[in-house]
Amino acid sequence: MQTVLFFAIVKKGTASYFLEQARKAGATGGTIFRAEGTVANPFLDLLGLNDSKREALLMLVDHSNEEKIHQVLTEKCELPKKGKGILFSINTSSVYGSHQLMHEFNEGDQEMSKYQLVATIVDRDSGDEVVETARAEGAGGATILHGRGLGSKKAPKIFNVQIEPEKELVLMIVETQKVPEIIEKVSKAMDIDQPGKGILFTIDVNDVSGLFQQIQ
Questions:
Q1: What is the average per-residue pLDDT within 154-161?
Q2: Which of 5, 94, 98, 153 would be a feasible disulfide site paired with 105, CB 3.0-4.6 Å?
């Protein structure tokens, strides 16, 4: 199965609406990250999240639904209009923690590059453990973003208000040869294979600069 990652950068307060429309088109859930603070961060700058008036929405979707979701969100969320948001999708090289979207990492893929973006979404306050586990297997630095998970429609409610669990997204660029061991150890440490424990996915990276810890 091929899985794609959808990434939407939208106005503050509108990401939930984007996710609602995406669900109607076949998405099963997503994680929303709000832009907070003014600390300089090249990764946030790249994503356009250095503006506190923005939100980012991440969704993992089966490749068969990619075109439909693009079409629905473009129309329903009026993306052709200036300032409404930016939406893009990219192929993943693996997905763990979702029985529906399971896609194992294949280091032997001839088209795979030298580096991978390893992304792990876990409950709040669990990101540091992900980083420590990955570093023990040779990973370098990491960026942790805070957000809220919006998955099952059966999420608990209080006074008819859905309780949205807080999440952390851990992002690490690592050498492809180290990825299988990192996936194995992080998955085991965080119980990724158990329902609701988290999601781990990887994305092929074309090129990297600034990973000084990788220099021999």
A1: 47
A2: 94
